[in-house]
């Protein structure tokens, strides 16, 4: 038997499984699968509850940190718009991290400076 996280089933359950018919095992499998789906849904809901619209968050994609603003909270994912406004992502809440308020202020200051440079024509070229 495979040992997951070093947790052992009580011997009574293990012995009871040995006595089940194929149909009973299939039924038990469906019950277990449904329970696991319910537990996974609860984890997702709890993870989604940590975020709200307009939060600035980041996640890692192929070794690159992507930073964006939450524009929508879906049933299983969060929709983000990158801070440059060029890309939209749907990301599982388990992969994103909220950016601290101080860091958020730094991003907006940089964007403000970039816009000011563009308006004044000082793009550094």
Element layout with pairings:
Blueprint: H1 11-18, H2 22-48, E1 56-61, E2 64-73, E3 78-82, E4 88-91, E5 97-98, H3 101-120
Antiparallel strand pairs: 1-2, 1-5, 2-3, 3-4
Q: Please, could you describe this protein's structure?
A:
This protein is α+β, with helices and mostly antiparallel strands. It folds into 2 domains: 11-48; 56-120, Roll (SH3 type barrels). It contains 3 helices and 5 strands; from the N terminus they run ααβββββα. Strands 4-3-2-1-5 form a 5-stranded antiparallel sheet, with no helix packed on it. A hairpin with a 2-residue loop joins strand 1 and strand 2. It is rod-shaped. The N and C termini lie far apart (65 Å).
- Beta-strand portion reads 15-25%
Mean pLDDT: 86
Rg value: 24 Å
* Helix-strand topology string: HHEEEEEH
Spatial strand arrangement across the major sheet? 4-3-2-1-5
Helical percentage: 40-55%
Inertia-based shape: rod-shaped
**Any idea how many domains?**
2
Short descriptors:
125 residues; alpha+beta; SH3 type barrels; five-stranded antiparallel sheet; 3 helices; 5 strands; rod-shaped
Summarize it:
The protein is an alpha+beta fold and 125 residues long. It contains three helices and five strands; from the N terminus they run ααβββββα.
């Amino acid at each position: 038997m495979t040992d997951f996280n070093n947790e052992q089933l009580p011997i009574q359950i293990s012995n009871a499984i040995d006595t089940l018919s194929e149909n009973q095992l299939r039924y038990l499998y469906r019950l277990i699968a449904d329970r696991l789906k319910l537990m996974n849904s609860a984890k997702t809901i709890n993870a989604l509850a940590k975020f709200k619209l307009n939060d600035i968050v980041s996640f890692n994609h192929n070794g690159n940190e992507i930073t964006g603003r939450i524009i929508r909270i879906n049933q299983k994912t969060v929709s983000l718009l990158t801070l440059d406004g060029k890309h939209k992502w749907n990301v599982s809440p388990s992969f994103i991290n909220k950016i601290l308020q101080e860091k958020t202020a730094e991003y907006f200051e940089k964007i403000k400076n970039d816009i000011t440079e563009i308006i004044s024509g000082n793009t550094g070229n």
